[in-house]
Amino acid sequence: MAGIVGVLAFDKVWNVSKFLYYALIGLQHRGYSSSGVVLLNGEFYKHREDKSPEDMRLNGEGWAGIGYTGKERAYPLVYEDVAVVVDGILKNPEALRRLPKDPEKTLSELEGAFSLVALTREGQMIAYRDESGLKPLTLGGFGFDMAIVASENVAINVIGGEARREISPGEMIIVDKYYIDSKRLKEPRRNYCAIDYVYQSRIDGKINERDIYALRVRIGEQLAKERPIQGDTVIGVPDTALPFAVGYSRATGIPIDLGFTRTGSPIRTMLAQDSFLKVVGVQLKLNVVKSAVFGKRVILIDDSMVTGLTLKNTVMSLRRAGAKEVHVLIGSPKLVSHCPYGVDVPKSSDLIAANLSDEEIAKVIGANSIYWLSLKGLYEVIGINTICVGCMVGRYPKVM
Known about the structure:
- The chain is of the alpha+beta class.
- The protein has twelve helices and 21 strands.
- The longest helix is centred in the middle third of the chain and has 15 residues, at about 210-225.
- This is Amidophosphoribosyltransferase.
C-alpha cells in the first residue's frame, strides 16, 4: 500500500515542495516506512529517505513535482525523461521509459494492479489508474494556479486544494501549463479493494464515490443487525473504527464512550515493519480511559484482525482498566489469505482467522466473544458486487 501525489503549477514562479511535503503527510496512513519526492526545475531533483514523510528534510525547489510514501524503496523512479511514482504492483516498470514519447501506448501495455503519477522533463504530468480500479486516484486543483493528483482527496484538502473528481479505472489524465486532457484507455471493471473501505482510507475521505465516514457508520449499523449484544458501552478503536462504534451505538441505543486517548503519532500496526511495533503498537499509540470502562460490559469494535496481537493487547488493556466483559466485533469479514496486489495482508499461515475457530480466537485474545461482519453484509453496505475481497475468500479478480 502506498500514497502518491503529483503537483504541477501553471506558472514557474511557484515552488511546490511544501505542497508535496504536506500532501504526503496527509497520505502516510497508506504507508510510511519509505518516502521520496522528485521536483522539476529545469532538471529533476530527487530526494528519498527510509523514513516517514514528516521526518523528511526536503530542501529542493521546483514548479512541479511528484511524491511517494509507502514501503517500496524503489520509488520515485527517475529515468532520463520521466519520473514516476506508483501505488500497487507493476510487472513491467521499465516500459515507463517510453511514457513521454507515447503515453497512450505505454500505459495500455502496462501490466499490474496500480495507479501512477508521472512527471516528464518537458513539464507534463501524467496520471493513470488501471482498469481494475484497485488503487484509488483523485484529480483536483489549487484555484487556477495548480493541478493536483493524489491517492485520496484528503491529501488535496489538507494543502488547501479542492478535490474535483476521482479518476476512473482505465482513465489517463495529461496536464501541462496550458490544458488538462482526459482519455479512457480501457473499460473499467470496478474491482475496488474492500480493505480501502473498511481500513485503509482516512475517515474524512471519499473513495470510489463512497463517503468513508458514512459508509463505516453503516457498517456499525449492519453489525448491530447481525450481532446484537447486551452491553454497557460501545467503544471503537481509534481512528478507523470510531465510525463503526457510532453506527452500532445508534442502532442499539447502547451509549458510546471514548475508551482510548492517543499518546503520540498514529502508528498503523498493520503497516509496521518493526516486529516490536506490531506487538506493542497499541500501547505506544493509545491509552485506556479507565472511567469509561471500569466495571462495564464493553463492546469493543475494531476494523480488522490480522495476527491477533494488536487486539490481544487492546483487550488486555481494557481488562487491566477494570472492564467486566469485553465482546469484540470486527467491521470486516475474516482475513484468510494474502494479497497479491500490494495490500499488507500476510500469508494464510500468519492470519489468526485462517487457523483458529472463533472460540479459540476469543480465548487467545482474552475476549468473552468475537464476531466478524459477514461478507453479505459488506456487499450490502458498499453496494458494489464486483469489489475485490480476495483476502477474505482466497479468490481474486484477474487483473494482470
